[in-house]
Amino acid sequence: MNAIAPQVSSVSALPSAEELDRALRDASPAEVIAAALKAVGRDKLALVSSFGTESATLLKVMADVDPAIPVIFLDTGWLFEETLAYRDTLIETLGLKDVRSIRPAEETLTREDPDRDLWFSDPDACCRIRKVEPLARALKPFSAWLNGRKRFQGNARADIPVVEDDGARLKFNPFANVSREELEAIFVRAKLPRHPLAASGFRSVGCMPCTSRTAEGEDERAGRWRGRAKTECGIHTMKTS
């Protein structure tokens, strides 16, 4: 289908998330990204990527629509070296024009995590200072953002819409309807490089202290915060301001 997003002339005239979701609920990922671009313009649209095991697929679709859409990458200070290398590989492979690596505020780390053990004692607080707060700052100039969540990932993601209200901005989930098989097809068709840790059993990669391998038959995110009730870092469970 050719999904058409309502034309807007200013941020104050943004279409509602409900209106866009109705128009795009059966759209392809490329159509969703194109509609987001049309709704707010490149200068007001960002894609947030972890450069994790599935990230290349969304970045590839985005690059085919417009490789100059800004990409926000949260460099928490706890990432695997392989993830940082993969970021650089994908930037070159896909021709991404504007990847912004965002780090936590040094004064916050000094005040709240001086011994770098907050991930163990209070992982929610660790995610807040290393991911949630830096992303909120990075998104300030933007009216909408794209992310790679998928319904098949389960838990809080099982019922995500294609477009949702994220407080001060619109949040687009271009891959909401995409299946594992469709993701794999994108990897194969585009000959995309894999995350270096994928071959050794890491199906979902976040920060080093809170990421482990997953066993056969486990949910793909079972290796995140293993042994804890925590399943999300927080950037998708609270609205940005």
Automatic annotation (TrEMBL):
Class in the EC hierarchy, top level? oxidoreductase
Q: What is the protein's name according to its record?
A: Adenosine 5'-phosphosulfate reductase
CC per GO annotation = cytoplasm
What family does the database annotate? Belongs to the PAPS reductase family. CysH subfamily.
Q: How is the cofactor bound?
A: Binds 1 [4Fe-4S] cluster per subunit.
Reactions the enzyme catalyzes: [thioredoxin]-disulfide + sulfite + AMP + 2 H(+) = adenosine 5'-phosphosulfate + [thioredoxin]-dithiol
**Which organism is this protein's natural source?**
Bradyrhizobium manausense
What does UniProt list as catalytic?
A: C233 (nucleophile)
Which Gene3D superfamilies does UniProt cross-reference here?
A: HUPs
